[in-house]
Design brief:
By secondary structure, the chain is mainly α. Helices cover about 65% and strands about 0% of the residues.
Length: about 120
């Protein structure tokens, strides 16, 4: 039986880690392929204009507008929800329902559930 209170510290030596070796090799290749641009990149970056700074009032106004939009959506939601529910009931009530229809719906839901579970739990 192992003692779970003892913390295991991984070996920090890079010689044993394949990922560290791969990253170091990739860095060596990148340095070997580097083309010196004689400071061209630094000159271009220095010549670029400063980024546009947004006015200080912009963020509070955005928060206020999003708050107003959220409040309007919340106020309209109860009426919208009842309208959608009423229309869905009207559509569903117009359909003839029989035992084979219910069985087919249950089979479709079961197939979708099992298919989704198989997709999520697959091992690649």
């Amino acid at each position: 039986m192992t003692d779970l209170s003892v913390k295991r510290v991984p070996d920090p030596s890079p010689d044993d880690d394949w990922l560290e070796r791969a990253l170091a090799g990739d860095a060596r290749e990148h340095r070997a392929e580097h083309v010196d641009d004689a400071g061209f990149t630094a000159r271009v970056m220095a010549a670029l204009p400063a980024p546009f700074a947004a006015p200080r009032w912009r963020k509070p106004v955005e928060w206020a507008l999003w708050g107003i939009a959220g409040a309007a959506f919340a106020a309209a939601l109860p009426g919208l929800a009842t309208d959608v529910a009423r229309e869905l009931f009207r559509l569903l009530a117009a359909q003839p329902v029989s035992l084979p229809h219910i069985a087919a719906a249950l089979v479709a839901v079961g197939a979708a559930t099992w298919g989704s579970a198989a997709f999520v739990l697959r091992r690649d």
